[in-house]
Amino acid sequence: YTDTITKKNGGKAMYLKNEDVKFESVENARGGKGTIRKTSFLTKEEMKESSRLFGKIIIPPGCSFGYHVHEKEGEAYHILAGKGMYNDNGTEYEVNAGDTTYTMSGCGHGIENIGDTDLEIIALILLDK
Ligand code: MN
């Protein structure tokens, strides 16, 4: 998607406009229900060795991102909109807009949209050093 980025400061900074963000559809993400959409705001080069994802996940009503375990990395979710049932390493609780979760290395998580509007999440995966 680099062709859609407006480069400033001689390419040392970037500005990705909302309308230029391209989403990828993923069916049964990690064994989840239905089709979710996801995007990564930054390239591998921009994230260097710190992260492997800074992006957004959109889960339509009734769909889910299946439970999975992270190894040698942790992942934070920040809920932007909607209502979800979050599985935090085996413990389930409801999450809503403004809430943040974090799964550390060796632990797992998953999330299901239990509302009637899209569940929008910012996801950040940080690599262990
Ligand atoms: Mn994850």
Per-chain topology:
Elements: E1 6-8, E2 13-15, E3 24-27, E4 35-40, H1 44-47, E5 51-59, E6 64-69, E7 73-81, E8 83-88, E9 91-96, E10 100-103, E11 108-113, E12 119-127
Antiparallel strand pairs: 1-2, 3-4, 4-5, 5-12, 6-11, 7-10, 7-12, 8-9, 8-11
Radius of gyration: 15 Å
What is the 3D form?
Answer: globular
What's the total helix number? Answer: 1
Structural category is: mainly beta
According to DSSP, the number of beta strands is 12
Task: List the uncertain runs.
Answer: none
Q: What is the spatial order of strands in the main beta sheet?
A: 3-4-5-12-7-10
Overall pLDDT: 92
User: What is the N-to-C succession of helices and strands?
Assistant: EEEEHEEEEEEEE
Biggest sheet architecture: 6 strands, antiparallel
Bound molecule kinds, no repeats: manganese (II) ion
The end-to-end distance, rounded to whole angstroms, is: 28 Å
What percentage of the residues does DSSP assign to strands (E)?
over 45%
